[in-house]
Design goal:
The chain is of the alpha+beta class. Helix content is 30%, strand content 27%. Strands 3-4-5-6 form a 4-stranded antiparallel β-sheet, with no helix packed on it. Strands 7-8-9-10 form a 4-stranded antiparallel β-sheet, with no helix packed on it.
């Protein structure tokens, strides 16, 4: 019996990109973030699993942009960018070469590509403005709630993940997971703007034994997760403690 190839993880996908000559070490992390933030894939047990949206987009791009959406073309573009950096080619020539391939395919896609609608997943919540069901949608900065009665109703709401940890600054609110306008995850007090407490690393419900500040956890691609003190002036801010999974 044969088994399907293992799904990509962060490490195996980076290794494959490197072997194929796609991207650079500085672009690998943004690639991983982009395919997840745009809901092309979901991470399950540290593996990337394609979503319905991801499968549809890949199929359409391969059908209408076959000369561009392939490994050979992308790797060649990387070589051309290196040539520009080294003064062996010009950006005008590279852009013109790309445009000569891209323009005919774009014209055909605009004429023949069918419109695809993906229905939002029911959230179990009701829109407080019109009473219609709220569904999960995906935007530039990730997942959010939107009214299913769009465009008649344009109500949207951010998805709030409450960590259940009391805010160490005001003691009234709890810490919740948020996203900045650039899509970066951070953790702030639910009482904002009355309380402006914020952390850029995931907090844990544990106090530092030296200074009493809240502890934070840092995740590493290589090696175990560690917790540190969130207080930059504390000795435990630099000295991490390995997180032991139960």
């Amino acid at each position: 019996f044969t088994q399907p190839a293992a799904r990509y993880t962060d490490g195996s996908l980076m290794k494959t990109l490197e072997e194929m000559g796609i991207g650079r070490p500085s672009t690998y992390a943004p690639i991983m973030d982009t395919i997840q933030n745009r809901n092309y894939v979901e991470k399950k047990d540290k593996q990337f699993v394609p979503t319905e949206l991801g499968v549809i987009i890949v199929d359409l791009l391969k059908k209408y942009f076959a000369q561009i959406i392939n490994v050979g073309f992308t790797a060649h573009m990387e070589e051309e960018l290196d040539a520009i950096e080294q003064g062996k080619d010009t950006y005008r020539h590279v852009l013109q070469e790309f445009y000569d391939v891209f323009k005919p395919e774009m014209d055909e896609a605009e004429e023949k590509m069918e419109k695809v609608t993906i229905s939002g997943q029911d959230s179990g919540q009701v829109c407080e403005l019109c009473g219609a069901p709220m569904v999960y949608k995906f935007g530039r900065f990730g997942k959010f709630l939107a009214c299913s009665n769009f465009p008649e109703c344009r109500n949207t709401k951010a998805i709030v993940e409450d960590l259940g940890i009391t805010c160490p600054k005001c003691g009234k609110g709890t810490l919740i997971k948020r996203k900045s306008k650039r899509g970066r995850v951070f953790y702030g007090c639910s009482q904002y703007p009355e309380c402006d407490f914020v952390l850029w690393n995931q907090p844990v419900d544990k106090k530092c034994p030296l200074c009493g500040s809240i502890m934070i956890v840092k995740h590493y691609k290589k090696g175990p997760d560690k917790i540190f003190c969130s207080n930059a002036e504390c000795e435990n801010h630099k000295k991490g403690e390995v997180v032991h999974e139960e």
